[in-house]
Amino acid sequence: MVAPPSISSHPLRSSRIASCFASTPSSKSSVDWLGGETPLHAAASEGQLVVVKKLLAIGAAVNAATKGGVTPLHAAASKGHLKEVDVLLANGADVNAATKGGWTALHVAASKGHQEVVKVVLAAKGADVNAADKDGATPLHAAASEGQLEVVTELLEAGSDVNAPDEDGATPIRVAAFNGHLKVVDVMLAWGAQVNAATKDKMTPLYVAASKGHLKVVKELLAAGTDVNAANWAGGTPLHAAASKGHLKVVKELLAAEADIKIADTANKTALLIAIEEDNPEIVTQLLKSGASVEAGKTAATALFAIYVTYEYLNTVNSVMDVVLNGVGIVFVLGIDDLFGEKLLHLATTQYNTLDVEVKLSSRLELQQKVLNCICILVNVSLIAMSMFCVANIKVRALHPKP
C-alpha cells in the first residue's frame, strides 16, 4: 500500500491569504503555488467553508491537482472537513480522482478514520468503494491498516470486497493482523474474510501476527480455524516466526494449538535452532520442554551443536542446561565444509588447552557422569592443511578457558 498523500505547508495555508484571492475575482483564484496547490486546496484543507464557496463561485478549478495528484477533495477529506467535502462534490469534484499513488478521497478519509466523510463520499454518484491504488490496496486496506473499526464496517456495508488482495496478495485481514488490530480482524472474520489467505510469499494472517507478537490476534485466528502450520515461501511456520522474534506467549499459544515443533524450513532449521541463533533462551527452554528434538535438522548445524560451540549462545546454554542434562547419549555429527566446524576448530585452538573441544558451560556444573558422546569431526583437506593439526574426539564438559 502506498503512503498517504500529503498537503505541504506554504503561505496559502493562511485562510486570510486564501480569502484575499476569493474577495477579488481574478485568474489568481486558480493560481498554481508551490507544487501545484491552489487557494482552493488551502481553504479546503483548513476547513474554510466560506472561502471554499467564494473560490468556487469565482471559477476556481474544483479538480485542480498538485504535482502529486492531490485535489481539493483529497485535502478536505484528509482533514475530515465534512461540509467542505459536501460542497466540493456538489460542485463537480471527481469523487474517484486519484493521486499519483492511486489514492482516492475515500482512501484518504478511510485511513484517517473520518467516518462521516466516508459516508458522504460513498453516497456520491459513481464512488468506487473498491478503487485500488498503485499497489492494489483498496480503501478497506487503508482503514484496516490503521485500525479504523467504524470505517471498516461502513465500507463492508457499502460492498467493499473483504478478500480483495493487493499486488502482493495481502488481503485486508492480513493487513489488520500485521498491525494487531483485533477488533478489525473480528469484524472481517464475521464478514467472511478468508482466514488462511496468503500473500505471494505465502505469509498468512497468522504468520504475520505471530511474527509481530500480537497474542490476542493469534488467539482469534486460531479460534477461527487457521492453519497453525502454514509455511511461507522459505518453509517458515508461525512457530518459526514467533521463536525468531522472542514472542514467548505466542510460542506457547501456537504449541497449545498443536503447532508441529519438528518442521524445518528450507534452510533445514527448526524453530528450536532459530531460537538458539537469535539468542532467545526462554523460547529455547519452552521448545525443549515441549519436546523439540535437539538433533532435528538435516545438516550438521543441529540445535545442540549450535548451543555448545558458539560464544553468542552462552546465555542460552545456561538457560537450557537443566533440560539438556536430562538427556543421555546425545551425538553431534559435523559434516565436511560445515561452518560450525570452522568455529569449533577455532574455538579449540585459540581458547582451550587441548584439541578435545571442551566448551565452557558453567563452573558450577558437575558433568562427570553425564559426558555427552560425540563423533569425530570430518574436516576438509584444505582446512587440515592450513591448520596442521589432527582432529580428536569432542567432549563437552564444564571447565574454565585457559588464561
From TrEMBL:
ANK repeats lie at residues 35-67, 68-100, 101-134, 135-167, 168-200, 201-233, 234-266, 267-299. This is Uncharacterized protein. The lineage of its organism: Eukaryota, Viridiplantae, Chlorophyta, core chlorophytes, Chlorophyceae. Keywords: ANK repeat, Repeat. The keyword Glycoprotein does not apply. The keyword Repeat applies.
